[in-house]
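Objective 1.3, modelling of assemblies. Example input:
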Amino acid sequence: MENELKDIELIENYLDNLLSEEETANFRQKLNDNPDFAKLYDDLKWIIPGIKYTSRNQLRRELLNYSNDLDKFDENNLPESEFDLEKDFGVYVSEKEPASPLHVSSKNENNAEAPFQSKFFLYSIAASIVILIALTFVFFQTSEPEEAFQLAYNEIGQGAYPFIRENPEDIELNRSSIPQVTADKIQQAYLEYQERNYEEAIKLFEEVRKGDKEKDEKLIFYLGNAYLANNNPQKAIDTFLEITDYNHDYLSKTKWYLGLAFLKNGDLNKAQEVFEDMQENISDSYKDKAIRALEEIKWGIY
Amino acid sequence: MIVEKMSGGDTKVLKNIYNQYHHEFIGLIIRKFPKLKYDDAEDIFNDAMVSLYENITKGKLTKENLTSTLKTYFFQIGINKTLAFVKKSSRFNDIQVEIKKNESETFEILDDDELEFEDKLKQVEACMVKMGNPCKTLLELYYYHKCRMIEIAERLGYNTADVAKNQKAKCMKRLRKLLVN
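Predicted structure (tokens):
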């Protein structure tokens, strides 16, 4: 009992990043050497977040009860606030300017006194002008790929997909039979990713998956993200494409980042296809992101 | 002071703050974002309350590093959450929001998409409920409300902090066993 108590404390300190470098090295060694300790560690990685999750839900229920004791909120007579969102918090809200509609008349006004006798010639000129106007419009209205990427990656999305250390269960491995050395490498790869050391993360992810018999969609998803964040969109595309033709937990996220990688690579057509596919076939929050991308990026001919 | 009281895991203090800010905050954001539904606005408010509480219990917010009033601090959290909601929802595609303020006062917001492992967390929750009190309360007080062992001992009627600590280890063991079975 005494040992387990100490082990629990040690694991808690490790998960809270409170150990020194030396202590961390000893900790990892112990994980390798002591299967009971490794099992306890595996369990605690999601038991502790589970306890916090339970408590947070309990707190939310308490808060809902508080609102029952308040006077009814009158939506037709909104209460005043001492704050002004613009002045005090710098939040400015305005209506978006509507996108200019593509309006090109296809009807040529035929002037009886035109100096050109041949109708064919006249129509050719008119058609050329129409095409020229349309192309000029497309040229000026189409987003530059990099601009479109920045809009989708940083404004609609949230940059590189975050790896949240606060959920240590994120590191939990689904393959209980893998050797501890590999498990440590995977964990290290995720930690490097979290620290935005993408090069190092890529190296470790690639190393680990060489020995993989089965595809680990989560690992491949994060590897693709690391390539994208490390400015290598082509590798990101190749990586994401490995896991986009069958169903799994990471499918919608992967498609979103695949679309972003195409944007980064300058291929707006492919990106548009991916987002359209998401609009049709995805039902979670990534569908909203895809719809926003389709609406906000000025897609053109490339 | 409120922050000190809450850092001891006293959720009742939250009720005062809740009552004081609830209508004002919701009125403020609905006035700015008229398409925001009342229920969504209340969810945002409740999330902001949870974040405020967690920032205090985790020691991110202390009376020493609170540079504004608690109310301004809370409203800033709530506004950040509102903006994250507006950004995510296609209902607000017709407006654009600009932030013209130093970013130093913004607070990290986690994306809900991160709850990929909710099923596992729900399993723990079910086992916590099955286990019942005092273990459930003890583990919550320790891991979530960040109470010290001596405070837990006082609240739950153990003679010393060491007794509470031993009890915590036993509760952990029971919870692990329930989860494995």
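Residues 116-176 of chain B form a domain with the Arc Repressor Mutant, subunit A fold (CATH 1.10.10).
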